[in-house]
Amino acid sequence: MSFQAYLDNLEKKTGRTPAELLAEAQERGITSTAKAQVVVDWLASEYGVGRGHAMALYKVIKDGATISDKHVGSTGAHRDPSTELRLDGIARR
């Protein structure tokens, strides 16, 4: 699954765009210095989200919306269309 697909599925599971979840994390005081388990626990308790999807959001909290170009343009299951992740929601594409 691509990184973007993890974020898209997170949106489907929570009903909130990644940008909305990032804003909620900020309201909760979750910043780039937070431990991963804080994000995992929050998303599991609040939205029933599993560890993999929570870790995708944690990576964005920690490092921003840019990812490595390792899988961009590849044909594998982990391929991403761009190094820039879309956080504004599936409906806005």
Write up what this structure looks like.
InterPro entries: DUF4287. Pfam families: DUF4287. With 93 residues, this protein is mainly α. It has one domain (3-86). It contains four helices and no strands. Helix 1 (3-14) crosses helix 4 (51-63) and helix 3 packs across helix 4 (51-63). The longest helix has 13 residues, at 51-63. It is globular. The model has no long low-confidence stretch (mean pLDDT 95).
Structural class: mainly alpha
Number of domains: 1
Order of helices and strands: HHHH
What is the average of the pLDDT values?
Answer: 95
Poorly predicted segments: none
| Percentage beta strand | under 5%
Task: Determine the number of helices (DSSP H or I, runs of at least 4 residues).
Answer: 4
Q: Helical residue percent? A: 40-55%
Distance between the termini: 19 Å
Rg over CA atoms = 13 Å
Number of strands: 0
Estimate the global geometry from the Cα principal axes. globular
| Main sheet characteristics | none
Protein name: DUF4287 domain-containing protein
Pfam family, one: DUF4287
